[in-house]
Amino acid sequence: MRLIGEIDPARPLLVVAVAEEAAYLNSGLPVLLTGMGKVNASAALATVLARGPRPAVVVNLGTAGALRPGLAGTHQVREVLQHDLDTAVLHTLTGATFGAPLTLDAAGLVLATGDLFVAEESAKQRLAERADLVDMEGYAVASAARAAGVPVRLVKHVSDEAGEGAARTWRESVDGCAEALGRWARENLG
Question: pLDDT digit of tens for each residue in the chain (190 aa)?
Fold first, then answer.
């Protein structure tokens, strides 16, 4: 975890998993680098929010794999769900709901978050029935921000097509994605 800059209660906090995704974020806003995965993302953001001051809004910027052919570009997330937590089974066992999908906006795509890297085509197809994109931090960021009472937005840039047949890998596309995310931040959060 690394916080670059100081949090201003009147301005957004940008939350990004890794430095490669933050390479073009030069908007003057603070940036929290959380590390990859749900645990790292939620722990880093919860720690920063608990220390205070709290930002006006948390904006999670990052890359995501496309679950459908032809999906490209930068997208705001309407709803985020956890794909590696079986909420139905947990509800059956306990009677309580853990990890229900979170609605964030009226428009946008559905994001599935999980610590499992989606490489197999069968896993991609199952996820595509419920979501448009897949990442490893979005749900955790949204959940931590909501728990702290801070508004949250998720904005993802498609880095590759998830699954075995991806034409480009994350490593090959991350710099172009970071540039697009930096441009989006300057144009939408200035």
Answer: 999 999 999 999 999 999 999 999 987 999 999 999 999 999 999 999 999 999 999 999 999 999 999 999 999 999 999 977 666 665 577 777 677 899 999 999 999 999 977 778 888 899 999 999 999 999 999 999 999 999 999 999 999 876 655 556 778 889 999 999 999 999 999 7
> Where exactly are the structural domains of the chain?
2-189
Nearest-angstrom CA–CA distance, 13 and 3: 10
CATH architecture of 2-189: 3-Layer(aba) Sandwich (3.40)
DSSP state of 116: S
Name the one residue in this structure whose structure tokens are 């989006």: 184
CA terminus-to-terminus distance, the chain = 25
Number of continuous H segments (helices) and E segments (strands) in the chain: 5, 9
Q: What is the pTM of this model?
A: 0.92
DSSP-assigned letter for residue 28: S
SS3 content of the chain, % helix, strand, coil (to 5): 35, 25, 40
Rounded CA separation 40/62 (Å): 14
